[in-house]
Design goal:
Elements: H1 2-17, E1 20-25, H2 31-39, E2 45-48, E3 63-69, H3 70-80, E4 83-88, E5 91-96, E6 106-113, E7 124-127, E8 132-135, E9 141-146, E10 149-156, E11 163-169, E12 173-174, E13 177-178, E14 206-208, H4 211-216, H5 226-229, E15 236-237, E16 247-248, E17 256-260, E18 263-264, E19 269-270, E20 275-276, E21 283-289, E22 303-309, E23 318-324, E24 327-337, E25 341-350, H6 352-358, E26 364-377, E27 382-397, E28 401-417, E29 422-439, E30 444-464, E31 467-487, E32 497-498, E33 502-518, E34 521-535, E35 538-542, E36 549-552, E37 557-560, E38 565-569, E39 574-592, E40 595-606, E41 608-611, E42 622-625, E43 633-646, E44 651-668, E45 684-700, E46 705-719, E47 736-737, E48 744-753, E49 758-767, E50 771-772, E51 775-781, E52 784-789, E53 795-796, E54 800-809, E55 820-828, E56 836-843, E57 850-856, E58 861-869
Parallel strand pairs: 2-5, 6-12, 6-13, 17-22
Antiparallel strand pairs: 1-3, 4-5, 6-9, 7-8, 7-10, 10-11, 14-21, 15-16, 17-18, 19-20, 21-22, 23-24, 23-58, 24-25, 25-26, 26-27, 27-28, 28-29, 29-30, 30-31, 31-32, 31-33, 33-34, 34-39, 35-38, 36-37, 39-40, 40-43, 41-42, 43-44, 44-45, 45-46, 46-47, 46-48, 48-49, 49-54, 50-53, 51-52, 54-55, 55-58, ...
Domain TonB-dependent receptor-like beta-barrel: 374-829
Keywords: Cell outer membrane, Membrane, Receptor, Signal, TonB box, Transmembrane, Transmembrane beta strand, Transport
Membrane topology: Multi-pass membrane protein
């Protein structure tokens, strides 16, 4: 009986499978329509779970099956369909196809280098057959996962000749590429830029200028200057002519983290802002982050300016330099050991003081600086580099006032590659800024400085093209010397006095991830944890009710509090400590390869402050740490933007909106005495600041005429309310314009290549005058007119603008070896605009009439420089 039943079942099955059908499937056919075709021609019924959506179109290609057995049909469909069919009895079960194990891909990796074997950052690597690509990282490295096969790899970068190479991939493969410059300019090192805006990258609010751009922007005396060049970008201003520092999105100069090869720089200018400390010949990269700042950066609340030096040529010796009207520069580079080690040495000096002496002028001003970098590659996985900087300024007036100041910096860096996926970078550094002031008439000398010692260890891990992870730790030890006063003769009225030294320790850890969730959406998110300790030994004053500043209601003014005692903290003992979590997030949504929108948020903490009662930081300004009376500044910044490339990247548009708010921004009471004040807490209050605005950048990237137009509409304000209902605060406790507010800021930069020998450059700047406080009346006391001033920063200086022109002449543009040279002729402020640097209100001694006098620094300034290399 059992055998009879089995035979019947077998015959039944054969009859079922032998049923013939004719069906056509294509991309437009829904699963429900397919079921009807089968069920109308056979006795089979379909069975499936709710996970199967019968209204969806699961078939990927068009195919017609004519009079085919049902079993053969199912087998054919299972080869390509994204769902799985199986037959049991007269039922056809439908389920999602189980994912097959992904075939392991091979990794193509390597490094892109320039003619001097220096890494090119942001170079494009493109796989022709797959229409996919990647860009190089901060070390010039790239990696792409590929299936086995033969591919055409194209390497490209603006200012360099494209390189194409055929590569066969059957396992992990590494190869390096060297690109040759196609520029006709001398020493036109292209750094950290691309032909068009990177619309897919999550990073926003960052500006990258090429060294070619920097050398073409006309500046006073024709000296190329990276720091002056960033003033042509949206959201960046400064105090005007002959002012040091720069302001980003309404922030103060001390809120910018300025780094050279990863080490902090505490003063960024020579000759009170006439030159910057950065020699354009030796610089290889410059990134300015204004918002959306990655988690690896911390310690400031406005911006990060990350500057790096070249590594030197590994193959041959080279010399280049320039001779200008008031300064000259020279650079030498070459191999220490062929293809293994390299060096680069660069120096600058000014000699305007020599001409002043010839004219019997007793005033003098000069500077010099030296840059050095040594690099050694032990193997493909390990390299060691030392970089250093030393700069000094000497300034004296009529042999009565003398000042010297400058930076010293050293950094030892080790890079190690565990694999193509994991690269580490460890550095130890030292940075020192010193300032000295001598007054021969008063027979005294004052010296101050800030030193810092640091360690950084960063890891960069690439899990895949869709997931990148960066993490690291860093520590920084500070040694603040606010000043020591020394008498220089026995007749001096000053006694020796050492202001209290201050010490602090700052350390942090960060994690940053970048995820590409699908082709259009990329998110970067991270967290930084920072901690700050104010350390002894130092004696800290105590005050009644803990208030170092007191309010005098009789005169409606703030006054210095009187210490009631003091507490001494031993060296290394914690005086105060602060801890902060600093989350960061950024998102990019690309509509296509040319258009995207981006948004970002970042919180940052700043634990050190620069004490200054001037709008532009001067060399004598003092840095001080947070502590019992000075809280760390805390920033929250939000930004959103629209980015688009036009005509295959020939034109680019970037538009951003931003909003910043800062807690614990220090403010000064009226009449604050900052210089040589051992109890600085007696003249400062904790307030808050905010800024908001719109930035627009329109660029023309190709053709004989290139350049950009940037415009910023913004507002920067500060508020210091009273600590109690009875106190008025600063400016009656209302929001008032900060000294860094520039409502309008317009810059137009144009470069025109007339022919291989001649190129022309122009830069036009138009800014609102900076806020100022004018007297709104006078009163007479003892026969003397005394001005009565309005509330803080209620007025403005006149509009600031100038037009600068330059022409570059290359006598032999086709010459690529031997002595090569070019001339730069420039005119700064060609229509001789007398821009107001400050206003002084006095009484005319002859007429007795009150009058305002405007101080201007520059009129028209011609310049010429001769530049060479061999």
């Amino acid at each position: 009986m059992k055998h009879i039943i089995s035979a019947c079942f077998f015959l039944f099955s054969l009859s079922m499978f032998s049923q013939k059908v004719t069906v056509t499937v294509d991309k437009t056919l829904t699963l429900k329509e397919f079921f009807k075709q089968i069920e109308s021609q056979t006795d089979f019924k379909f069975a499936f779970t709710d996970q199967i959506d019968t209204s969806q179109k699961y078939f990927t290609e068009k195919k017609t099956f004519t009079n085919v057995d049902i079993k053969n049909l199912i087998n054919e469909l299972n080869k390509n369909a994204v769902i799985q069919f199986s037959i049991t009895g007269n039922n056809i079960f439908v389920k999602q196809k189980t994912a097959k194990t992904t075939k392991k891909k091979s990794r193509l990796s390597g490094k892109v280098l320039d003619e001097t074997n220096q890494p090119i950052i942001g170079a494009n690597i493109f796989i022709k057959e797959l229409q996919i690509g990647a860009t190089t990282d901060l070390n010039g490295m790239f990696s792409i996962d590929l299936d086995k096969g033969n591919y055409t790899v194209v390497i490209s970068y603006l200012g360099y000749q494209n390189k194409e190479k055929q590569i066969a991939i059957d396992k992990d493969f590494r190869t390096d590429f060297n690109l040759e410059s196609n520029s006709q300019e001398l020493d036109q090192v292209i750094v950290k830029t691309s032909k068009a805006t990177d619309v897919r990258n999550t990073q926003m609010s960052v500006n990258r200028l090429t060294m070619e751009d920097i050398k073409r922007i006309p500046v006073a005396m024709g000296e190329p200057d990276p720091l002056k060049s960033i003033l042509s970008l949206p959201g960046v201003t400064n105090g005007g002519d002959l002012s040091s520092g720069f302001n980003v999105r309404g922030g103060a100069a001390d809120q910018n983290l300025v780094m050279l090869d990863g080490a902090p720089v505490y003063s960024d200018s020579h000759m009170f802002g006439f030159f910057s400390v950065f020699n354009a010949d030796v610089i290889s990269g410059l990134d300015l982050y204004k918002g959306g700042i990655p988690s690896k950066y911390g310690g400031r609340v406005s911006s990060v300016l990350d500057v790096s030096q070249q590594t030197g040529d590994f193959d041959e010796y080279k010399v280049n330099g320039g001779i200008g009207l008031i300064s000259s520069r020279l650079l030498v580079q070459g191999p220490l050991q062929k293809e293994k080690g390299s060096f680069i040495l660069a120096g600058r000096t000014s000699y305007a003081h020599l001409f002043l002496k010839l004219a019997d002028n007793k005033n003098s001003a000069m500077f010099y600086d030296l840059n050095a970098k040594l690099n050694y590659r032990f193997n493909s996985k390990n390299s060691l580099a030392f970089s250093g900087y030393f700069g000094s300024d000497v300034f004296d007036i009529n042999e009565r006032f003398a000042s010297t100041y400058g930076n010293t910096m050293g950094n030892l860096n080790w890079k190690h590659s565990f694999s193509d996926r994991l690269i580490t970078n460890m550095s130890v550094f030292y940075s020192d800024y010193k300032f000295s002031l001598g007054m021969s008439a008063e027979n005294f000398e004052w010296n101050s400085n800030i030193k810092s010692y640091g360690l950084k260890y960063n890891w960069n891990y690439t899990q895949s093209e869709k997931l990148k992870v960066n993490y690291g730790i860093d520590g920084l030890y500070y040694d603040f010397n606010p000043g020591v006063v020394k008498p220089t003769s026995s007749t001096s009225q000053f006694n020796y006095k050492q202001l209290d030294k201050k010490y602090a320790l700052e350390y942090s850890a960060y994690l940053d991830l970048e995820n590409q969730f699908f082709d259009k959406l990329t998110i970067r998110y991270g967290l930084r944890y920072s901690s700050f300790f104010r350390l002894g030994g130092e004696e800290i004053s105590t005050y009644e009710d803990g208030k170092a500043v007191i309010y005098n209601p009789l005169y409606n003014i703030y006054e210095e509090g009187t210490p009631t005692g003091s507490t001494y903290y031993k060296k290394g003992q914690s005086i105060s400590n602060f801890n902060n979590f600093e989350p960061r997030a950024a998102i990019s949504f690309a509509f296509n390869d040319n258009t995207s929108i981006k948004a970002s948020y970042n919180r940052m903490a700043q634990y050190i402050h620069m004490l200054s009662n001037t709008q532009s930081p001067m060399p004598m300004n003092i840095w001080t740490p947070s502590g019992p009376f000075t809280k760390p500044q805390l920033l929250d910044q939000y930004a959103a933007g629209y980015f688009q490339n036009f005509k295959d990247g020939d034109y680019s548009f970037e538009g951003e909106l931003f909003y910043k708010k800062i807690q614990n921004r220090i403010d000064y009471i009226d009449g604050a005495n900052i210089l040589a004040n051992n109890n600085i807490e007696q003249v400062i209050l904790n307030g808050r600041a905010r800024s908001y605005g719109m930035e627009i950048l329109l660029k023309k990237n190709t053709g004989k005429l290139t350049g950009w137009l940037s415009y910023t509409l913004s507002r920067a304000e500060q508020q210091t309310p009273g600590r109690t209902p009875e106190e008025p605060g600063i400016a009656d406790g209302k929001w008032y314009l900060s000294s860094y507010d520039k409502l309008h800021n317009l810059n137009i930069v144009g470069n025109y290549l007339f022919n291989p020998k001649w190129s022309f450059n122009a830069n036009f700047t138009l800014q609102s005058g900076r806020p100022a406080t004018y007297p709104d009346g006078y009163y007479e006391f003892g026969g003397i007119n005394i001005p009565n001033y309005s509330l803080r920063n209620e007025n403005r200086l006149p509009l600031y603008h100038h037009l600068d022109l330059a022409a570059t002449y290359t006598p032999k543009p086709d010459k690529k070896k031997g002595w090569q040279s070019y001339w730069v002729f420039s005119i700064y402020n060609i229509y001789n605009r007398k821009n107001t640097a400050s206003m002084r209100f006095t009484t005319n001694e002859d007429t007795g009439v009150n009058e305002a006098r405007s101080l201007s620094i520059f009129g028209i300034v011609p310049g010429v420089s001769y530049n060479f290399k061999f």
